Amino acid sequence: MHISNRVLLHNFNIRIMEQTHEFLSRLSGSDLKSWVIVNTVYQRYCQDVGVYECGINNQTGNVFIALENGITLASAFGGLVEFVVYDSNEYGYEHSYVCYEDALNHKYAR
Fold it and tell me: What are the start-end ranges of the E strands in the chain?
């Protein structure tokens, strides 16, 4: 498994690369809680899957870990993790699941 020492932050439609320690030092309150939650779920259910990117979406409040298998672990405001799969067609519809196994069964998960 390869985890980069950089994270990709989604700031509206602008992507900004920054060092991991800079990203973590900016998290506080419910964002930090969400980060702990998605990391805990990652370690429990999918630690054998590589990490593609991680960060925070400032539009939705989701703190996320995007996996190389096409599934994204996301939590907003310290809430439960959603397992999200996006269609790989031109529309990119979002499909959210409460269970990792259900997300794995989606036709666009790899």
Answer: 6-11, 14-19, 51-56, 62-67, 71-76, 82-86, 94-97
